[in-house]
Amino acid sequence: FNTTIGVVATDLALTKAQCGKLAAVAHDGLARAIRPAHTMTDGDTVFALATCARPAPDHDTFQDVLATAADAFSRAVAHAVLAATGREDAPAYLDVFPSAVRKET
After folding, report:
1. CA 43, CA 40: separation in Å to the nearest integer?
2. What angle, rounded to 10 degrees, do the helices at 16-33 and 59-83 form?
3. Helix then strand then coil, % of the chain, to nearest 5
4. Which fold has domain 5-100?
5. pLDDT tens per residue, range 26-73
6. What's this model's pTM, rounded to 2 decimal places?
7. Which of 6, 21, 56, 93 has the fewest CB atoms within 10 Å around its CB?
8. Is 59 exposed, middle or buried (0-12, 13-18, 19+ CB in 10 A)?
């Protein structure tokens, strides 16, 4: 039973509905990076926010933002998994699979 909580943010002016869509698409990125995801016992949650520092995007730009958000969220989760440190009772990914990354020499 695991829970993943994340945030995806943009400086674009988005509506509440667009932020909801952005969070939903970031969930797709989560599912790309972690399996299983979105099970009945998970508390996976992604929040989206928009600072509105830049103008609202047009339709095509918003589609690009959504695609980029899913990719970025997936990469962020993968980086977090590889950077995590474990505990004695809960080993991290690299504790279990130390050869998953190449050590720099």
Report:
1. 8
2. 40
3. 50, 20, 35
4. arginine biosynthesis bifunctional protein fold (3.30.2330)
5. 999 999 998 888 888 888 999 999 999 999 999 999 999 999 999 999
6. 0.85
7. 56
8. exposed
